[in-house]
Amino acid sequence: MNRRRFFYCAGSVAALTTAAGCLGDDDSGDGPDADDETRTTAENETDERRVAPDLPEIEDPPDAVYVPTHREAMQMLEPVEAGAYALAPMLSYPHPFWLVDGRETERVDPDGSPAVHLMFTLWDADTGLVLPVESGAQIRVERDGQEVGSPRSPWAMISQEMGFHFGDNVPLDEDGTYTVEVTLPPIGVRKTGALEGRFAETETATFEFTYDEDFRRAVIGGIEYLDEDLWGERGALEPMEHGQGGGGDEGDDHEHDDSNAHDEGDGEDTGHEGEDGHDADGHEEGGGNGQHEDHGDGHVPYSSLPPAEDYPETLLGDPETGDATLVTTLLESDTRLTDGSHPYLLVSPRTPYNRVPLADMAISATIGRDGEELATVDLEQTLDDEYDLHYGAELVDVQPETGDTVTLTVESPPQVSRHRGYETAFLEMPPVEVEVDMEVPE
């Protein structure tokens, strides 16, 4: 199998040679061998400040969600509130990620300079609902009252362990304490239910972190390598525990179940039908959404959408395209999402396994009957406190009947950046079809 060919970036992080995984004290063979390369004292001193570890790469991953080579470690800071927003900052070593432009991706690599991968999860301070849409946020970094670098807009991102968040590799100067100011402008997407009229003001959140050798040792030493037999296989890491914590030990504290990586030879269902029934570790499955509701005790919510069976009224199906699942349901005309006289078509795209919402898509729906097209509507990206992120439209020109078809066409795939394991999925997304069945099951 081509994707079984792996290679390692050259070099090692000499200042951290006693840490686990890629730094050589793991005898399991899962990480690079520190004895493969002998380094002089001068070389060690030169590389002492490097914070980016050398990580194994999967040369030819599948065009789908796959298991990466390792679980990352990070430092989680105290959540902060800013008006209607709550924000949880997180820091890790700078690492590659992939930008999306249309149906193409572009890999962004760290340049080797002192830096951190700065991330934050953003949610509604009242409901605990993660806000998984491009916010136009901007970050400014200062040290000793002096601005470091230029203001930058963090990318909307998805990762298997963190779900939807914002992040970027942020360059730094010397070791020391840094202050980060995050400007959060109004959210421009349609908001309904308890979210209607909210997030209309610009708010600012501020936090501090310390960048030093202890931080570098912690976030690199906390990397945990998976069994090489899983690398590149269809599957995903479980969400990490989002409790508050310190020095990047989350990778060690979180006990991971590798069963999320489907083994296609074990006779089990290897499709994604079980995706909506998967109990994402650490997340509530009941109720309106799959996110934490105890957001006031230091826990950070994970952007897990409700299972398909939790959506009300007429569930039309959960077809897959481009390795994404499109949960599709039809709400009756008395739904609060319309003016009360027309049904509402709701489509909820999510990742397999962890049900992470797929934001910033363009989707249209064509209603057909007896081989003829009755109407085509564009679905609007919407945030709702009950239905979470979805794409929907009021069906003004057609009243669907049993036997009608609904063809969903992804005009533009999710324009969110990706961490490892997601960068090859959700790009080529052919149209899919579901059939309307208005009969209520017994």
Low-confidence parts: 1-47, 243-290, 292-296
Overall strand count: 27
Gap between N and C termini: 47 Å
Query: Helical segment tally?
Result: 3
In round numbers, the mean pLDDT is 80
Strand fraction band?
25-35%
Any descriptors?
3 helices, 442 residues
Produce the secondary structure layout.
Blueprint: E1 6-8, H1 41-47, E2 56-58, E3 70-71, E4 75-76, E5 80-82, E6 85-92, E7 97-101, E8 104-108, E9 115-124, E10 138-143, E11 146-147, E12 155-159, E13 163-171, E14 176-184, E15 190-192, E16 203-211, H2 213-221, E17 224-225, H3 250-253, E18 314-317, E19 320-321, E20 324-331, E21 344-350, E22 362-369, E23 372-384, E24 388-394, E25 405-412, E26 417-418, E27 432-435
Give structural notes:
The chain has 442 residues and is mainly β. The protein has helices at residues 41-47, 213-221, 250-253, and strands spanning 6-8, 56-58, 70-71, 75-76, 80-82, 85-92, 97-101, 104-108, 115-124, 138-143, 146-147, 155-159, 163-171, 176-184, 190-192, 203-211, 224-225, 314-317, 320-321, 324-331, 344-350, 362-369, 372-384, 388-394, 405-412, 417-418, 432-435.
Summarize the entry for a quick read.
The protein is built from three helices and 27 strands. It is mainly beta and 442 residues long. The relative contact order is 0.16.
